[in-house]
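User: Some background: our group keeps a shared notebook of sequences we're curious about, and every so often someone picks one and asks for a predicted structure to add to the entry. Today it's my turn. The entry only has the sequence so far, pasted here. Could you supply the structure so I can complete it?
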Amino acid sequence: MENNGKGIFYGVIGVATLIVAIIGATFAYFTATANDTSTIQGSAATVDLGLSVTKISNGNKGLVPQKEATLSSAMKGKDNTANSGNDMCIDGNDNTVCQVYKITVTNSGSGDAKLKGTLDLSKGSVANLKWALVDGETLESAPALDGSAKLDNVIVESLTLSGSGTQDYYVIVWIDETGEAQGDTGEFTGTVSFNNAGGGEGVTSTFVS
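Assistant: Of course. Here's the predicted structure to add to the notebook entry:
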């Protein structure tokens, strides 16, 4: 009976040892696997927008009315060139007939940005104030309007600006001549915005007359 008891005892000890050994081996297996797994690495793309609005015409006096039909030639100034270093938007009587602005939007990030650009004019008492896009490629020689006076506020409906990308736009602002006595006086303000084309925040800049 004693021998049977010892046998049973040693049998129990043996089974327990085996179980511990199996568990230990299992833990060791998973530990080794965990140590051998590969890591996931990468970086997130960024969008970092900037916006500047710079007046490039020279007239500093208050605007006098100008017909839209002759705006391109009026923009050349009295010396008949569109060189911003001379008399851009100055007529033969030294009056200021328009203002031209360069709008530069930049993306200093690494990801693409899809943007909608707008220009909103706060006219105040300048009831006949208008604006239009100008063809930047012909700005220095034969300025041409990219379409007539804007009836809405859209500069560009959809602009995809890649990382480290820059895009320029040129706009002209003037008081449209009606052919009748006009009471356009005072100051005006323009607000340029480039926002996410699908909605959301972007960048804004303001210019004053």
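Suggested note for the entry: The first helix runs from residue 2 to 36. The CA atoms of residues 32 and 158 lie 53 Å apart.
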